[in-house]
Amino acid sequence: MSHSDPSPGGHVAVLGGGLIGRSWTALFLAAGKSVAVYDPDPAAKARINEAIDAAWPVLTALGLTQTSTPDADLVLCDDPRAAIEGAEFVQESIPERLDLKHGLYAAIEPVLGRTAVVASSASGLTLSELQRGWRQPERFVLGHPFNPPHLIPLVEVMGNERTGPGVVDLARRFYESVGKVTIEVKREVPGHVANRLQAALWREAIHLVNEGVATVNDIDTAISSGPGLRWAVMGPTLLFHLGGDEGGLTTFCDRYADSFNRWWDDLGRPHLDTATAQRLVEGLSPITTRDDINNLAAKRDALLTAVITATHNKCGQNSQT
């Protein structure tokens, strides 16, 4: 086994057994890895096992399981130093508080393997903020997934001038070896890439609700039964290229520039204050009172499995690329 290239057969540590950490754990086990999970909560073991059992049929349907059962390859630890022992790749997913993350990094750095790569799942914190918890952050990168990580292929990977040469590429190869699709974030901005895109869309959805243009459910339906279907197979710029017919994106931009500029000038700038949040909660209540969160998640996962099966191959590469 090469010490310079994390291997699909290697040992992985997952730091944090919350929603994201449990999902990562299921994926890594499905990929045939041995996994050590650190979580100090005594109740974490039951939650992790339950999450793995729930994820396994989905992972099997996607062709991502290389083993029939994950039980023999999972170890739970209440000490992060024990969890990272021998790990070639470490996925950190503890709560997004800098003091907690910095404390964890300080605990593991002295005993971390020299060639191990550590990635943080952080979505709201920046790489430079996270790096302040390390004396030597050369092997540390951002590895931000989309929830749930065992199902949504995307991982956003980022390094900077303090990241060692080739470490971003190592992280990307590791993720791709377990079926993920990676992009590289080349400049630090709050929210990275995908979160900013969905935040922009949600901002306008909230504005339309606040302005009484449509209900919460109808706006969600407008996405899931409209452009959301197209976005599952191609990104917006490539789709608009197709919208230009034989002239492609050049024709599309020439034809629709005035319309888009008018729409952009009219977009709202709401804030997610208490009143707005309550309006959204009430707008979803016809659905959320009928289906509990577990049933809704199961429906989501079943539909996502069908979409991913149709649009991605087993190596996690989009069928359009």
Automatic annotation (TrEMBL):
Family to which the UniProt record says this protein belongs: Belongs to the 3-hydroxyacyl-CoA dehydrogenase family.
Domain 3-hydroxyacyl-CoA dehydrogenase C-terminal: 191-262
Highest taxon in the source lineage: Bacteria
Catalytic activity, EC: 1.1.1.157
Protein name: 3-hydroxybutyryl-CoA dehydrogenase
Upper lineage: Bacteria, Bacillati, Actinomycetota, Actinomycetes, Pseudonocardiales
3-hydroxyacyl-CoA dehydrogenase NAD binding domain location: 11-186
Presence of keyword Ribonucleoprotein: no
Organism encoding this protein: Kibdelosporangium banguiense
Keyword terms of this UniProt record: Oxidoreductase
A single GO molecular function term of this UniProt record: 3-hydroxybutyryl-CoA dehydrogenase activity
Pathway: Lipid metabolism; butanoate metabolism
TM annotation in the entry: none
